[in-house]
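## Example record

The block below lists the input lines for one assembly entry, exactly as stored, with component labels intact.
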Amino acid sequence: MRVLIVGNGIAGGEVAFGLRRAGSGAEITILSAETTPEYDPCSLPYYLGGEVPRERVFRRRWEDYRTAGIRLETGEKAVAIDPASRCVRTASGREHPYDRLVLAHGGSLFVPPIAGIDKRGVHGCKQLPDADRLDRHRGSRAVVIGSGAIGIEAAEALKKRGYAVTVIEVMDWILPALFDPETAGRLKRRLERCGIAALTGEKVLRIEGTEAVAAVVTDRRTIPCDTVVLATGVVPGVELARTAGIDVGRGIRVNERLETSLPGIYACGDCVETVDACTGEDAMFQLKHNALEQARVVTRNLLGASASYPGAWAFARAHFFDTHAVTFGKTTRATQCELGDLEIVEREAGDDYLRVIVKEGVIVGGQAIGRFADAAGLLIGAMWRRESVPALRARRALLGDGPHGTLAWTTRRLGELLGLAG
Amino acid sequence: MAERREIRVIAERCTGCRRCEIACSMGHCGMPTPERSRIRVLRLPPEGGHVPVLCQACEDAPCLKVCPMNARVRAETGAVITEAEACIGCRACLYICPYGAPAVAPEDGKTVTCDRCADLPGAPWCVAACRDCGALEAVRPGEAPRRACRDAAAALRPVLRPAGSRRCGS
Ligand SMILES: Cc1cc2nc3c(=O)[nH]c(=O)nc-3n(C[C@H](O)[C@H](O)[C@H](O)COP(=O)(O)OP(=O)(O)OC[C@H]3O[C@@H](n4cnc5c(N)ncnc54)[C@H](O)[C@@H]3O)c2cc1C
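Predicted structure tokens for the full assembly:
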């Protein structure tokens, strides 16, 4: 059997090496648009910030492919799939036949339609070549457009490299997809305490400069700078699939076996549209753990099992300098258009903050800063088990916390954390 | 190759004496500093008893998947440990852990978890220190499946007798 994998990222690598680990004798080829062995995009900001040497971003070495008998075709960007002849064509014009095809080519940086975006000094922070270019770039004043997790991580890295850094966010609070305004406001203050300016509710109109960047103009001001980093989000790569007649929505559509609408063609990672494991709703979380878990399901199905994917989960940390925060599940905003009683449990102790979103008696999401974040795992567990918060309250009122209590310690900690006095 | 072993927690025997923490930090850092211990005794509020918390080296460990630096790795011994040179101290492993097991080293903010004292021929330090109470037991993986250890660590009803009725060494 010939297995062809498009994309040598987190998902693609996991499928290829997973097949071999399971003893598959398939002929495995990976088509990679890039020129290096697999690296981890999540590591890039820390290489850029000088916290780890460049070699730490790699998840594999060249010899890993050789030893595993996996053919890695670098600089081979897939441009078309011909499902009739079971063949993938690359930009170089070569054709690669397959019996099973795995689409694991992730997504690409969303480039906003801003005038001047092509000027010298405007960078992405999505792939290793982006980080390498930023590493070589010499500048002193940077503007980061977009305050998602990648934007904040890029801002911290540039700050550590000695840049003066301004982050611009069009929404009214930073990290808008991950945190509620109440949590984000606290994070913003901490970011500013670290010397990073964060401008929210502000729109970038254009980038000025003759050839190189000289300033970013927003609807409120002009910010002189020599470096711009685009952190404006990742759009799932759907073109390759769409042009082959594969069903796509926001991402490539897959069934629960992660097979696309064309039999024998699977998809995993940032390019797929899936469901939220907790709620069953459509989800596009584009996170590493989801890419890995999806890849493992695809691997098992390629091996002949019938594995189904339970869905993706939202979990992200926000970490810069000495600030440590975490978010999981839904934000309040994400629950806004839903029916059902919403209860927000908040706790605050000094700089530490906890916010738990309870809907219809079960935890659906939460955010924490500082010490409260250390117990996030307990809350996530309760969310996954759909534990009833009112029942926990009632049990606690009945049995109390005394030495004769009979609740599991994780449940008791949970009760304490939620401040459920009963 | 180092011997594989597990540490079984029998929480109702824990008296909260925290000798395991002292022993762990002595063994790993040469200093009796509980903040550096990879096992932590959690005191349940108020008078709710104690439970020793340590990394359960889960089979499908979520920390391995969320670490942005791939610093969480499974050692030959089956333990899941943090490679210090790769760790950037972001605490993702701590936040996703169902027990909040990883400890944050005070000196560099990196996480550390129990390695089952892989290099030690005898019992792990914490187990040796807990000999009188017997809340920690070293077992071979065959003797107690990892899952059983893990379930015990989480689901136990830890306090079945009034706190203080049994003291360490009594
Ligand atoms: C800076 C940054 C930080 C991040 N931090 C985190 C984090 O902390 N936690 C987290 O969970 N997630 C994080 N993510 C997201 C995480 O990296 C992705 O979810 C994950 O990499 C998705 O894996 P993938 O295999 O689908 O895509 P990728 O890892 O992006 O791999 C796709 C590969 O396919 C290649 N490719 C694309 N098109 C083609 C083509 N036509 N032909 C051949 N090859 C092609 C690409 O060049 C790339 O190498 C971060 C992402 C970035 C960019």
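Chain B has one domain: 6-160. The interface with chain A takes residues 11, 42, 44-49, 51, 62, 65-66, 68-70, 85-86, 88-92, 94-100, 154-163 of chain B (CB under 8 Å).
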